[in-house]
Design a protein that fits this description.
The structure holds 3 protein chains of 3 kinds. By secondary structure, chain A is mostly helical. Helix content of chain A is 69%, strand content 2%. Chain A has one domain. Chain A has 15 helices and 4 strands. In chain A, the strands form 2 sheets. Chain A has a two-stranded antiparallel sheet. In chain A, strands 2-3 form a two-stranded antiparallel ribbon. Chain B is of the alpha/beta class. In chain B, 40% of the residues lie in helices and 23% in strands. The longest helix of chain B has 14 residues. Chain B is globular, with a radius of gyration of 19 Å. The N terminus and C terminus of chain C are likely disordered. Chain C has 20 helices and 2 strands. Chain C folds into 2 domains: 152 residues, no CATH class; 220 residues, no CATH class. In chain C, a hairpin with a 2-residue loop joins strand 1 and strand 2. Classes of the chains: A mainly alpha, B alpha/beta, C mainly alpha. Chains in contact: A-B, A-C, B-C. Chains A and C meet through helix 5, helix 6, helix 11 and helix 13 of A and helix 14, helix 19 and helix 20 of C.
Chain lengths: 385, 278, 516
């Protein structure tokens, strides 16, 4: 398989394990070992927040597959994220049990809304495995049905973006309603425990963080495997010239559906990890704006680069949490400005800038040599579509 | 088979409609048979009750002035455009009407577009690898599939044929125009189609490249049927055995280059304007 | 709200008029012979009597013979009377006041007075209403007077009158009559009901059926009207979007915010008028705001095109993202500068509405928007098909390269068309101030629907946009009453996706070799 593929530089693999080691070993150790007042100490809050960003990174990987590599702009990823988060959230609600404000087995908001009996679709979520599997399978199933109809009729480009945006709007409206028994505007919150561990315990949060890192690593390798397979090249080919793909004997609709479903699964996984770490999931996280923000993560990090997607998700969210803290009024300006700036001036995002810097450095060396740009990465540099 | 066909054609006065020819020759021998096909673009008839056929292993050149319906003819065959009426039969009895483009490709029809259409962001090798004929081109087959040694050999050979051996790992987008044309031809060859549709293969090529392309097409025609659309009469003379002249969506003449060039109507509508057309 | 404001103003001026001590003579009263002063004076004396029978007799006499000039005196008596007496006098005063209002120059005041009298349950006011009806010029005031009279007749002792009144209410399609009619039906349904009660109940039941079936009709008509009105808003919004999309293949996600710019331009113009012009010129702010809104939005659009979109030519998805960023900035800028909630006061002629049928009330602002959308469509039609620029726009839409070869400055065409489309958004914003508040989220409320219109309508044909707005707006309002707005949206999304199965590039897709 490697014959055709322009050689991936080995340092990519090294960087993966290096970053993995930092995330998995160094960060938790910084949290546990140094005394709280030490300069090196990483607070529980910071670690937990970082775990949330890494969960977003998983979502960004999926979005990068579909947008960065396949060229399909989905403005509805928030919906799949929400479906995953709500599946896990429902389980967490049910495990609150008698600790709830009203002291009944029923979730508080149902008592408040005078729902007498637990709705049927809630019942499977008493089981933890169902919640875990459901938070991935439900978004996948949903994406499968939606994508089937969308791609079958060759809805593409701008049309697909608009349709998925409408999906995000509709999902937001539906989740906001009380009669869907999903907690309405307030969403699902006040979680107490997950499989018997208290969510308020730092150790539980630390384990959740580690699980998130592992999931992110696995997702990364999974996406990389797809990208490096022949199917991955078909995806790039679809972005490049869908017409040609058809005449090469492939059915683009199937590939698009595949990548859409994979992206939905990753978004669902991200949602599943998000709910227990953040402790609340509301419709505000799944609407039109959040879905668009997810796209900007990938754009900032660098399209068609898996590392870029994760980097973008983490950096934009970090910037957001810092800036909304100090200048809440300014954030929409910055976010809007980011949209414009990244698209206009930095289409390759942070990764692109890093690469450019690197190639400048290597060129200044006497034997700089020809920059080896793998086809798929060079794709980004062209910045087409 | 092809020889019989040519004799038959030569016996016919050139002005006679091809519908008549269709009646006289059995279309059982044809790889593609269009019967009374009409394509309507909002009132403009790009093809008008067109009847057209090509034999197995025949190299057919289709010429005609701009807007004659040449590209539409290919579009109808490969399913890109749907005919308003008429039949399109592939091989013995496969009706192409209502079939999707990918189904038609799977049946064994390959197409090279007018503007070179390659995957600019993939390497030359990857371009060829994706085009290679395989038993399944489904998502999971490509996800888990590995190249076999045999496939690699075929790609290597193909690279030699199209003269891009040194460019295997170059991004296709950075090739020259002529190289892209060749790459696309190489891609279509690897699909191993029984009918090859080629739209203006030598546009923008140097004389030498043009001649090489002609030789390539001729050698391909030993194994598969080819329909070539071309403007360049020099090139047509080089490769053509039978030429079909389209005008306003119908066949007005069919025969050898000499015959076609001798025809008054063809002179009038086409040859007189040939230089202008390009 | 406007109506009640108007009413309050009228009532106030009426009160002023009354307290200025003007003597009142009601034109319609001419027929009634003035009773001897003494009996009124006597009754006035007895109104405050502790003896209930004396008091009610006096009140009855005053209702029959008194007029509004007694109100100040009654007011005086109330001021130092006991609670029970105050309660007895209050309805009398209300009746007298409403009687006076029947002659008000404002038809809304007359109508509400008639409604009030009808619900007073006092049959002795029937002659007033009958008398007022003879000279009434407004059809709908006459209708209300008749309805009130009929309602009052239901309180009669005579079963035949009641039955006739019930039938009449059915004929009038009176929604106000339904509660009373239902009581009558209930009274006829009990075991101990008399034969007469049963007859009345039957008449009442028949009337209810009639009223309700008319109610269904009038609802349907109003729903249709609301649907068309929403469609018109969508249409004005989508026209600009669709033209730009057709020309440049670009969806401007900031279109909603350009609309918001138009709305704020209207608001600012209004503020300017309140600050600098005499109040009787206030209404003029609205027509003045039209060009202001158009130019403000067109100017913003022009800038947007020149600074952002121009550099993203051929990359429609990037354009979407960048324009979305612009929309965020614009929204936040409006929020910071104007705050969250500002409203525009509709100019006089657009306040209120007109009644066309029983139970069918069409607000002027909605009619205005429908008319505006028709004007916009006609205007765009002429601009596209009869003007030089329009010819160029169509040429570039159909074949950009060829047009460029023919010497059409495609960049300029893009730029002007984009500004024009943005100006249309401004006009939409101007019109939207008539139906809602001006707030930073204004554009967001409709924008997704407008996108759906563009997707469903396809590009290149005006008719596609028109049909798609009618379809989506109509469906929205059709589904809303029974399933709620949210499920209406769900339904429309599903419908649009299914529709695109059938027509992947919208209603009127361009065919031919340039189709993809």
């Amino acid at each position: 398989m490697s014959d055709g593929t322009a050689d991936k530089n080995r340092s990519g693999g090294m960087a993966f394990w290096a970053v993995g080691a930092i995330l998995l070993v160094v960060m938790p150790l910084l949290n546990i070992l140094p005394p709280e007042d030490s300069w090196f100490h990483l607070s529980d809050f910071s670690l937990n927040r970082f775990g949330k960003f890494l969960a977003f990174g998983i979502l960004a990987l999926g979005l990068d597959l579909i947008w960065g590599y396949t060229g399909i702009l989905s403005l509805g990823q928030g919906v799949f994220f929400g479906l995953g988060a709500y599946c896990m959230g429902m389980h967490l609600m049910l495990t609150i049990g008698k600790e709830s404000v009203y002291g009944t087995e029923m979730p508080d908001f149902m008592v408040w809304n005078q729902v007498k009996e637990l709705p049927l679709f809630w019942k499977p979520f008493y089981s933890f495995p169902v919640a875990v599997i459901g938070s991935i399978l439900v978004p996948m199933a949903f994406a499968l049905v939606f994508g089937f109809f969308a791609f079958r009729s060759r809805i593409k480009g701008v049309y697909f973006a608009i349709i998925t945006q409408a999906l995000a709007l509709v999902a937001w409206l539906v989740f906001n309603r009380n009669d869907t028994n999903l907690g309405g505007t307030n969403g699902l919150t006040d979680f107490k425990q997950v499989i018997g561990y208290r969510l308020s315990e730092p150790s539980t949060q630390l384990v959740l963080y580690i699980i998130t890192v592992l999931c992110l690593g696995a997702s990364y390798l999974f996406c990389q495997w797809i990208i490096r397979s022949r199917a991955g090249r078909v995806l790039v080919a679809v972005r490049d010239s869908e017409k040609r793909v058809v005449f090469s004997g492939y059915t683009p609709a199937n590939y698009k559906l595949f990548v859409f479903v994979v992206a939905a699964a990753l978004a669902g996984l991200a949602g599943m990890l998000y709910a227990p770490q953040v402790g609340i999931i509301t419709p505000a996280q799944i609407g039109v704006l959040p879905s668009l923000e997810m796209v900007i993560w990938v754009a900032v990090g660098g399209r068609a680069s898996l590392a870029g997607a994760v980097l973008g998700a983490v950096s934009v969210n970090y910037g957001r949490s810092v800036l909304t803290n100090y200048f809440p009024e300014l954030w929409p300006f910055i976010l809007g400005g980011l949209f414009v700036l990244v698209v206009l001036l930095f289409p390759d995002g942070l990764i692109g800038m890093m690469r450019k810097a690197k190639s400048l450095l290597s060129r200044s060396k006497p034997d700089g040599g020809k920059p080896v740009v793998p086809a798929e990465k060079a794709a980004v540099l062209e910045g087409k579509r | 088979m092809g020889g019989n066909r040519l004799c038959l054609l030569r016996k016919l006065p050139c002005w006679r409609g091809s519908a008549e020819m269709a009646e006289q020759s059995s279309f059982q021998n044809s790889i593609i048979y269009l019967d009374g096909v009409t394509v309507d673009y909002d009132g403009f008839k790009a093809l008008n009750n067109l009847t057209f056929m090509v034999d197995y292993k025949e190299l057919r050149v289709v010429i005609g002035p701009n807007g004659a319906g040449k590209t539409t003819l290919l579009d109808v065959i490969c399913g890109k455009t749907k005919a308003a009426s008429g039949r399109v039969v592939f091989g013995r009895d496969v009706d192409l009407k209502g079939k999707h483009e990918d189904e038609i490709v799977a049946l064994g029809i390959g197409r090279k577009f007018q503007a070179p259409s390659v995957y600019g962001f993939l390497s030359v090798w990857e371009n060829l690898d994706l085009s290679l004929k395989r038993s399944s081109k489904g998502v999971f087959a490509t996800l888990f599939g590995k190249s076999t040694a045999d496939e690699r050999v075929r790609i290597e050979k193909n690279l030699e044929t199209i003269g891009l051996k040194d460019y295997a790992h170059t991004r296709a987008g950075s090739l020259s125009h002529g190289q892209k044309q060749w790459l696309e031809i190489g891609m279509v060859i690897l699909q191993d189609p029984s009918l090859l549709l080629v739209d203006e293969p030598v546009a923008g090529m140097t004389d030498e490249e043009t001649e090489q392309t002609g030789q390539l097409l001729q050698s391909l025609a030993e194994k598969q049927a080819i329909i070539v659309i071309e403007h360049d009469m020099e090139f047509v003379r080089q490769i053509a055995r039978v030429v079909t002249v389209l005008h306003e969506g119908t066949v007005i003449c069919e025969g050898s280059v000499e015959k076609v060039q001798a025809d008054d109507r063809v002179r009038e509508i086409y040859l007189g304007r040939q230089k202008v057309a390009h | 709200m406007m109506i009640s404001l108007g009413r309050t103003v009228a009532a106030l001026s009426l009160a002023l008029f009354l307290f200025s001590g003007h003597s009142w003579s009601i034109a319609a009263e001419g027929a009634i012979t003035a009773p001897p002063i003494s009996s009124i004076e006597q009754a006035l004396g007895q109104v405050a009597s502790e003896d209930e029978s004396v008091r009610s007799a006096a009140i009855r006499l005053l209702i029959e013979q008194g007029d509004v000039s007694l109100v100040p005196r009654l007011e005086e008596m109330r001021a130092n009377a006991s609670r029970s007496i105050r309660q007895a006098i209050k309805p009398l005063m209300d009746l007298l006041k409403n009687r006076a209002k029947l002659a008000s120059p404002d038809s809304d005041v007359r109508r509400s007075a008639a409604t009030d009298l009808g619900s007073s349950g006092n049959p002795s006011v029937i002659p007033w209403l009958d008398a007022a009806r003879v000279n009434e010029s407004n059809k709908w005031v006459r209708y209300t007077m008749e309805e009130s009279v009929t309602l009052l007749k239901l309180a009669s002792d005579d079963p035949s009158i009641i039955a006739a009144a019930a039938e009449k209410l059915g004929e009038l399609g009176s929604q106000n009559g339904v509660p009373v009619l239902k009581q009558l039906v209930a009274a006829g349904a009990v075991a101990e009901a008399t034969e007469q009660q049963k007859t009345v109940a039957m008449a009442a039941a028949a009337a209810i059926v009639r009223i309700e079936s008319w109610g269904a009709w009038s609802n349907a008509i109003e729903t249709l009207f609301r649907g068309i009105s929403l469609s018109s808003i969508l249409l004005i919004m989508s026209l600009g979007l669709a033209i730009v999309f057709g020309l440049m293949g670009v969806i401007n996600m900031a279109h909603g915010e350009l609309m918001m710019v138009g709305a704020y331009a209207t608001f600012v113009t209004q503020q300017f008028f309140t600050a600098w012009f005499p109040s009787d010129m206030f209404d003029w702010y609205f027509p003045v705001a039209l060009p202001v809104a158009f130019l403000a939005a067109a100017g913003s659009g022009f800038l947007l095109e020149a600074t952002v979109i121009r550099f993203l030519y051929g990359r429609p998805l990037e354009t979407m993202l960048a324009t979305w960023g612009v929309s965020l900035v614009l929204m936040q800028a409006a929020r910071v500068y104007f705050g969250d909630l500002t409203a525009v006061v509709a100019p006089g002629p657009l306040r209120g509405g007109m009644q066309v049928l029983v139970g069918v009330y069409l607000p002027y602002n909605r009619i205005f928007i429908i008319a505006l959308s028709i004007i916009c469509v006609l205007g765009i039609y002429f601009a596209l098909f009869k003007s030089n620029l329009g010819l160029r726009v169509r040429a570039v839409t159909q074949n950009r390269n060829m047009s460029a070869c023919l010497g059409i400055p495609t960049r300029k065409v893009d730029s002007y068309t984009f500004a024009f489309g943005s100006g249309l958004a401004g006009i939409a914003g101007w019109a939207l101030t008539m139906v809602g508040n001006v707030d930073p989220g204004l554009g967001q409320n409709y924008i997704v629907d407008a996108f759906m219109v563009v997707v469903t309508g396809g590009v290149g044909k005006l008719a596609g946009t028109i049909v798609a707005s009618l379809g989506i707006g109509g469906l929205n309002k059709l589904i809303e009453p029974s399933f709620g707005a949210v499920y209406g949206k769900v339904f429309i999304l599903v419908m649009v996706i299914l529709f695109l199965q059938w027509r992947p590039s919208g209603l009127f897709a361009m065919k031919g070799r340039n189709a993809d």
